[in-house]
User: Fold these one by one.
Assistant:
Number 1:
Amino acid sequence: MIETAHRASGERVGAADVAAAAQLACLLEASAPKPGNVSPARQFEDLRYEDFLASAAAIGAPLAAAGTRPLGETVRLAIEATARWSRSNANLGIVLLLAPIARAAFSTRCSPKPSGERSTTDELREAVHCVLDATTVDDAREVYAAIRLAAPGGLGRVADQDVAHAPTVTLVEAMRLASGRDAVAREYATGFEVTFGIGVPALARARGDGLGWNDAIVETFLTLLAAAPDTHIARRSGTALALEVTRLAESTLAAGGVRTMAGREAIARMDGALTDPRHAANPGTSADLTAAAIFVVLLGGGWQSAREAAAPGGRDAAAR
């Protein structure tokens, strides 16, 4: 039974630490004031900040045991646990992204390359590949059940491997079929290319530059949103709006984002532009990808190593 994972320092950490990192990633992501998303100062009619807090707490136990059970079962148990605490779908995308990373954190030694030639993040990324390559039809069946329970809006129907029916392919094969229309599925199809290739570097760079967690997370979110249209928006409201929001993220970053007064004003304007009663322009998938990047950084020791840089009165406070 796999019970321990590895931190950046090489020390072994327990399952409880993996769960704590996952919960903290969810809490940090929900707490950062990302344009168009729920935050402490922004509630949706059908989704409150408290729903994200409850969902973060609920997934701790299932993810703590991610190394001891199949991936699909972990996803289903996490969504079932969430449903006991929230009536809203606050975290399906997050769970789908965090579960493979959590399982991979318990098995980072799957590459023939000597460990000394790779960073901890590289090892984790290789382990995620191993986790995905090993998925089964049973994993797909469990994930389909979790998706049906969460009942995400705008899901629609497809001709092949629709979630309303029993799957006949492995989980990663099913995700490949959906990768053209869903960014979370695309992560499964590409070995978490966006999480590790864009999200993690953006967050690490922001933290390394001295940004506090809120600002670093907002910058990471904007970077991910600027890199590709948000598929949550596209699914609910169409490709044209998704492209428009991506261009808005690009211009907001170009204005300086969280690092300048002009950029902060652009963020405020962007938040106003994305606000409507239907939440049609809610970049929910980009928020999910942001949570995955935070989780990876925390697993690599990002919370401990940045304590000095995150001292009270740091960049978050000074920039305002």
Number 2:
Amino acid sequence: MTINLVRSGRLYEGVPYAYASVTPQGSLIFTAGACPLDERGEVVGVGDVRAQASLAVANLATALAESRATLADVLKTTVFVASAERAGLGRHQCGLRRARRAEHPARCDRARL
């Protein structure tokens, strides 16, 4: 089986991994972790969870688009938030919800913290 690795020219090219991989006939797409890196490989929004989440979702959407998919096609996400404050744990959800609502009518449930 041949797997197509997606190395986006629109995202930071200095990472040691592909942003996504697509199985034959595009039946499944596996994405790498979407980080808050800009096109120069610099972390955006240091200390600002919302800004970082927004860029991570935008980077995910770019990797999906180059794999011929959208956020509406996503079956599962896992979000890791590094924060010393409990309040910071839910802040990332706003960007993901907004992005998914734009493309998918399904409700994104908020996890109880």
Number 3:
Amino acid sequence: MLPNFLIPGFAKCGTTSLHYHLGRHPQIFMSEPKEPHFFSREEISDADLRWYRSLFEGVTVEKAVGESSPSYTTPALCRRSAQRIANHIPSCRLIFLVRDPLARLESEWRMRARERWASIDIMDAIKADSALVETGLYWHQIDAYRSLFPDDRILVVFLENLTENPQHELRRCYRHLGVDDTLDTANEFIALNTAEGGRRPRKVFASLVQSRISQSVRVWLPSLHNLAKRLTTTEFDADPVWDPGVRDHIIERYQRDASQLFAFCGQPSAIWSFGKKRGPSG
């Protein structure tokens, strides 16, 4: 069996939390591990496909079967992933999670800096990897999927709405997936896998945390991977120090991209501050 819906991301936009809450619905089956990253692989062999199918073995009464892999919206992989998804499961439904893109960027930078994937200087980090910025151009990535899937198969969920009114947003997801939307499965929304108050690997273990072996363990044995991270990290938290001109330029790019997303979703632009302080309401 293959899934009939996917949550392609975006990274640091609440996919872990949505994966968890959808999995509580009796008519929804969510994969374990959460992030198989199957359609973003360099190559897909017959053995890979058998492994992927095995993630969904034992599904019986569930109407919706899904997985969540933010790599499917990674800028460098997005179009290839979208095409592979269309080739293998052309009738699948898609749920995209988005949030204020500047907040998303800073959250991912904290995670990368904590795990020594990126500099603790945010300016150096974005120079080294443009994907930190480009991932927040949500519409650009979503549009790649719109060229392959009809709009009625695409649902966009704003993390801000999901956090403020989880039951309303989950019911939107349930309706999108064709399952019972009368169940109350979100008495209290649980935010998982946040980047705040994180931990930074001790230097001696940094290469291990970043290694291919570690990434394989993350997929195949997630509990062991999480234990290893706890044993090899120290507390880390920091606020970014921006060059104001660079920050303003990034915000302008985000605002242009988001205008199309807001129009597509019928979402008021006021939901995002783009890092700017809100004035008094009136």
Number 4:
Amino acid sequence: MRTFAILLLVFQVACSVREERPADLLPRDKFTEVLLEAQLIEAGLNDGKVIDANTAGEDSSAYAAMFKAQGVTEQAFSATFEHYVDHPAELKEIYSDVLAGLQKRVDLADSTGTLH
């Protein structure tokens, strides 16, 4: 019985220890917003590549403009993405938010006739 109590205590402590989130990562809502914009860039670039194979230089300039507009660095975005790759359950939640954001844009485009 004593062994069981010790194991239970160790299990509770192990479950209650929370990994600290690195301070230099983007806030989750900002990361989600930037990831959504990145998905739109990818969709646009992939669409352009189907039409015109001469879009090789557009990738980096589109991302550079997006990072600047969002007020984040590529390094901060990459570090944050890597953090969430190591935490797949959280990344899955973020991608759910991204998909919801994309759906809102589609719904708005359907109602106004233009994609925002």
